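Budget justification aside, the reviewers requested a transparent look at the raw inputs and outputs of the sequence design task funded under Objective 1. We therefore reproduce one unedited record. The lines immediately below are the structure tokens for a 125-residue chain.
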């Protein structure tokens, strides 16, 4: 995907580890995406209620708070069916049934090329 194609796409990255979230957000911004950040599922829902045009939810599975990333993915899929979903984890391997339709899973640690490829796939489906 060229820089110009990505520029109008907004990604919400949900990750409780600040350092991991910052690295991911920086890499996505460098690739031309608009990035919103949240440190928990609860914060992510607050962001989504205010934001419009979020194309992708990119969420870690294990997080503190009232729900994990898989539950967040379900809630987002129900309330905002147009948002595409990419979940990630270093220790949980969800079954396809755990991820909403058309959602994808990316194992940690991931390389930016892998993340970029998953996003391209999600955004062109």
């Amino acid at each position: 995907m060229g820089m110009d194609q990505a520029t109008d796409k907004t990604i919400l990255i949900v990750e409780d580890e600040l350092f991991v979230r910052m690295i991911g957000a920086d890499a996505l911004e460098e690739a031309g995406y608009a990035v919103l950040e949240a440190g928990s599922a609860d914060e992510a829902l607050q962001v989504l209620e205010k934001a419009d045009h979020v194309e992708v939810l990119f969420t870690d599975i294990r997080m503190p708070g009232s729900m994990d990333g898989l539950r967040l993915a379900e809630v987002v899929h129900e309330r905002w069916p147009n948002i595409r979903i990419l979940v990630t984890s270093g220790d949980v391997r969800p079954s396809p049934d755990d991820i909403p339709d058309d959602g994808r899973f990316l194992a940690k640690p991931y390389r930016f090329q892998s993340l970029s490829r998953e996003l391209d796939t999600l955004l062109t489906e």
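The helical segments are 3-6, 18-30, 41-50, 69-79, 112-124. The chain has a mean pLDDT of 91. Computational costs for records of this kind are itemized in the attached budget.
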